[in-house]
Write a structure and sequence with these properties.
Elements (H helix, E strand, L loop, with lengths): L8 H31 L5 E3 L16 E7 L1 H22 L5 H5 L13 H35 L12 E5 H12 L4 H16 L1 H42 L1
Parallel strand pairs: 2-3
Antiparallel strand pairs: 1-2
Helix pairs in contact: 1-2, 1-6, 1-7, 2-4, 4-7, 5-6
Length: 244
């Protein structure tokens, strides 16, 4: 029994970790979106109290400020989480794929459809899609976070009109909302921590996604090489038997 006909501890471990982290990312992102929507709705207006949190009821002109959410980073997180979970789950399912199934179609002889060449190809495609989406998400989220941080700062003064800031949920929860309102501060802190967690989970997802793609590439390379060698051996045996 060859190496590729048995369990592969490293690719299997990578697939399990990728699945767990992806599901965690999906759950945390969804919870953060729900949390901010419930307690700090997008576009809600608040009376500007400045950093001293002092508000004079008798002041003649009230100034208002609002924060809207940029959904791009959250959508990227949801996409990479779904693709990562699918890639991890498929990686677990094909972890016992037979060596010949990698390079030959054994759908008719395989005990399970997850040990066929078709299922292996699907797993490879999802692994590549997961890694690509995570890499794109990492680059795009970093650029967007940098651009938003230039705009989403605590204002030193407000204009008379149009005091609405569009920020990522992380910058809104961690930078803007603490100054704008003191209401439900514990919820706001939880949302801030969750958005940071999702962003930092990009790192292990990127590493695991790359590891899964490389693992498949190594398996395919070894499978093709060994299968070609076995065919040559079988051909020589056949020639010798025929000569006898």
């Amino acid at each position: 029994m060859s190496l590729l006909e048995t369990y592969h501890p490293l690719p299997l471990t990578i697939a399990v970790l990728l699945f767990v982290i992806s599901v965690s990312t999906l759950g945390i992102t969804s919870h953060t979106i729900w949390l901010l929507a419930q307690y700090f709705p997008a576009g809600a207006w608040y009376i500007w109290r400045e950093q001293s949190d002092v508000y004079e009821e008798q002041q003649t002109r009230q100034q208002w400020i609002a924060v809207d959410y940029n959904d791009t980073t959250d959508r990227l997180a949801l996409v990479r989480a779904v693709l990562g979970a699918a890639a991890g789950l498929l990686g677990i399912c094909v972890s016992r794929v037979r060596r010949r199934s990698v390079v030959e179609d054994e759908i008719k002889t395989s005990r399970s459809c997850f040990q066929s060449r078709a299922s292996y190809i699907i797993a490879v495609i999802f692994a590549i899609a997961s890694f690509t989406s995570t890499l794109t998400s990492a680059i795009w989220s970093t650029i967007l976070h940098h651009q938003s941080s230039e705009r989403c700062r605590v204002p030193t003064f407000l204009s008379e009109y149009n005091n609405k800031y569009t920020c990522t949920r992380e910058l809104a929860a961690c930078v803007m909302l603490p100054v704008i309102t003191k209401r439900d501060d514990s919820v706001r802190k939880q949302a801030c921590d969750e958005t940071k967690t999702v962003r930092w989970l990009l790192v292990p997802m990127l590493i695991l996604g790359l590891g899964l793609v490389v693992g498949y590439a190594v398996q395919i390379w070894f499978a093709r090489r060994r299968t070609a060698w076995e065919r040559r051996v079988e051909g020589r045996v056949y020639v010798l038997e025929k000569a006898e």
